[in-house]
Request: fold
Amino acid sequence: MLRRQFLHTAAGAAFPAFAQPAKKPNIILIMADDMGFSDIGCFGGEIATPNLDRLAKGGVRFTQFYNTARCCPTRASLLTGLYPHQAGIGHMVNPRPYPAYQGHLNDQCVTIGEAIRGAGYTPLMSGKWHVGENRPHWPTDRGFERYFGLISGASNYWKLDGHRKMAMDDKPYVPNSPGFYMTDAFTEHAVRFVDEYGRKPNPYFLYLAYTAPHWPLHAWPEDIAKYRGKYMKGWDRLREERHERMKAMGIVDKKWPMTPRDAKAPAWSEVSNKEEWDLRMAVYAAQVDRLDQGVGKLLDKVKELGQEQDTLIMFLADNGGCAEENIGGKQPGLPGPVESFTSYRTPWANASNTPFRLYKHWVHEGGISSPFIAHWPRGISQRGELIQRSSHLVDLMATCMDVSGGPYPSSFKGKAVLPMEGESIMKAVKGQKQRSKPLFWEHEGNRAVRDGDWKLVSRYPGDWELYNIAQDRTEMNNLAGKDASRVAKMKGMYEQWASRCGVVEWGRLQKRG
Reply:
C-alpha cells in the first residue's frame, strides 16, 4: 500500500454555487500535452478518439476555450485559478529573481487539491506536474492525497530520462518494468485511484495530466501501424479536410477563412521524403490514440462503480500544436522506438492547429486555443451541444468550487490567498453568453487581451494587432490601423493587468535569466 499524506483542509469564505444535485459529483480533469485544436475526432480530426467523442456526444464542447500557450504556465493557472504570474510561474520552472517568476507555486495561491478538501473531497493526481521540481513543491505538498507521475517536463515515454524526476506519492520513483510506457502508466494509476477512492463515502477530485502527444514521438508499434500511410495525402489536404469537417460541425464559423500554410512548411507536392513525414504524423496520431484508449479505461471504471451519472469529466489541452524543431539534436532517429527523440515539426503542427496560425509559445489563436469537453449527465442537460462563449483555464478552479459547493479560502496556512480570477463554466452551460471579465495573456513577450468579441494581440517584439474574433477568429484582418481608440483602450487594460500580476518585460527577464 502506498503511503498516504493528509494535509490541512482549506478554510475561508464560502463560494456561491448553483443549485446542485443532492449527491456531490466526483470531478475528473484530464489534460493532453502539446495537442492541437483540431486533432481529436469531435473537433474535426481524423485520429480515432471514440472515448473523447462519446464524452462530447453526451455533454458539451466549448469552441473558444483558452490555455496560456505553454506547459508550465498552463498547469499553474489550471491548478490555482489565477494567471500564472500571480502563482509564481510567469515563465517556466527555472527560477528568476522576480516574485512572478520564482519557478514553483507560491504561498499566495491554493491549488484545487488544497481548496476542494474544504468540500469533503479527496484530491488525487496522476501524470505530469511541472510546477515545482523539488520538495516541498510536489503534489503531495500542495494538497493532493495521492500522486503518481512525472514531476518534471516531458520525458522519454519508455524510460525516465536521467535529468527528469518521477514520484510515487512523496517519494522518488524510477520505472523498471520492461513494459513501461508513460501514457499507460498514468492511466493505470488513475484507474487504481478511482477504483479505491470511488468506493469510499467521500467524493474525489482526480487530475489526470498526460504527456501525450508531446515530443519525443514514442508509441507502441501496433498503434503506429493503424496510421501508417494515412498521412501520405500530406498536410495541405489534411488541413482542408479538417477545416471542412470543423465547419460542418459548427466548431468554426464558415465565414472565417483558413490561414495560409505556414511559410516554413513546403507544399506537400514538393516534399521528397514523404514516407518519413508520414511516419512522424502516424506516431503522433498513435500517441493521441493511446491517450484516448486510456480515457476509455477510466470511463469504464467509473461506469463499473455506478458513478457515470454523478461524475463531472472535463478534457482540454495545455497549449496549441508544437512547432519545435530539431528535438534530439543531430541524430534524433526515426520516431517511435526508445532510441529516437524527435518531434513532428512545423508542417504537421500547422495542420494540428487548423484553421488558426502560430503555435505553442505564441498567443495568437493557434497557440492558446484548446478543445474543451465537459460531461456530467446529472448536472449538464445538453447532449452534443456547442458552447461558443470564451472560457479560460482560470475558470477551472471556480468550476470545481462551484460544483463541489465548497469554500474558496481567503487565507491558507496563515497566508493571505489571492482571489480567483475566473468564473465557473457552469455559467456558460446555463446560457450566459459573455463572460463578465476580460482575459489576458503574456508569455515570452507575446501579449494579448480578449474583451468580448475583440482581441488585441502582439507577437514579440512586434506591434499590437486588433481582431474582431466574432468576424475573424483566424486573425486575418488586422484592424489596429482603423480603430486606434480601441487599441489604446485595450492596451491600457493590458498594462494595468501586467502591473497587477507582476509581469516583467521579456527582454529584461532574459538578461536576468
